[in-house]
Amino acid sequence: xxxxxxxxxISIAILLTGCNQKKNTSDIEDNxxxxxxxxxxxxxxxxxDYIKSELSAYEEIVGxxxxxxxxxxxELRTNGRSGLREWIMxxxxxxxxxxxxxxxxxxxxxxWIEKYDASK
Length: 120
Hints:
By secondary structure, the protein is mainly α. 73% of the residues lie in helices and 0% in strands. The protein has one domain (28-118).
């Protein structure tokens, strides 16, 4: 009986962890879409304009900490693009890491993730 209860509780914990991870991933994507879709700044080449205009969405991503860092770094490694969205993703990684960031200078998301991975 105790073993069955233990297995049941572990199964529930795994299920809930998976559900939370999917929700966090969805929240990150929703926030990135909100930040990059701001039509007011479509002519701007300054990514900070997008971040400032949707600061609460950006702060929500950064506030997810390691969960967001893991998701964002994986996305930067696998999507192969280096546009506005990816730049914002790299900036969020930098802001999550704060002074622990091994990357001090970068100009593109591709450069950021390459330097980040090289530092490991």
